[in-house]
Amino acid sequence: MAVSGASGAFGMALLLQLHRQGARPIALTTQPRTLMLDDGAGGTIPLRSVCWSCGSEAALAELLREVDILVINHGINTFGDRDPGAVQRSLEVNALSAWRLIELFLSLPERPAGQPGRELWVNTSEAEILPAISPLYEISKRLLGQLLSLRALDRRGDNPCRIRRLVLGPFRSGLNPYGVMGADFVAGQVIAQARRHCALIIVSPNPLTYVLTPLAMALRHGYFRLTSRA
Q1: Rounded to two decimals, what is the model's pTM?
Q2: Catalytic annotation present for 137
Q3: Where are the domains of the chain?
Q4: CATH class of the 2-227 domain in this structure
Q5: Radius of gyration of the chain (CA)
Q6: For an engineered disulfide with 121, which of 97, 105, 147, 164 has Cβ 3.0 to 4.6 Å away?
């Protein structure tokens, strides 16, 4: 199981949860060092860490062949910036890089019928639906969410890759130091909902998210199916 954005608060929390579940997580990180997990008892757990960069997604092709589940979680938040550089960085990191990883993973050969299929988890964030007080973060995450919805229409075959969308509310991290939830709590809820076979995983303190997100997904699915073709 590979997780991008592994050095962030949610990435590290999710990797720890996966380790506790017996998985063999792989940290995809832009940091040129081996990431370590805190085992909670004063020790550390070294992770298999793979350094990559946005724009070089194709270099991960061989690694992804051995991955059962890919979690696309990397991102940046430029907060109130709106200069051309901030626009380019936000779109490239939050949307286009994630989209290239999505396409790369979905292009891999399908697992034989009867075997567990691959899974793709994409963190689109609550900003896909609701304001995040960061216009470029909202725009880029909404673009990613729409691209994911469009691509999900093409799932075919006897054992297609399963897609799970992670719609996560504000949790404390480098991207959002004012989040009301802890990253460990959010990661635990994500794993719990995945174990219940949820395709739409929502973790948010805002009750509107639980109402608006499924409605928006259903309307978007119908619209894209009627107005587009592969």
Answers
A1: 0.94
A2: yes
A3: 2-227
A4: alpha beta
A5: 17
A6: 164
10-residue stretch averages of pLDDT, the chain, 230 residues long? 95 93 92 83 84 95 96 95 96 98 94 88 96 94 97 86 96 88 97 97 98 97 93
C-alpha 91/C-alpha 152 separation (Å) is 20
Q: How far apart are CA 157 and CA 161, in angstroms?
A: 9
Rounded CA separation 86/127 (Å)? 17
In whole angstroms, give the CA distance from residue 62 to residue 137. 30
Q: Quick one: which of 181, 85, 104, 95 has its CA closest to 137?
A: 95
Letter for the amino acid at 93? Answer: V
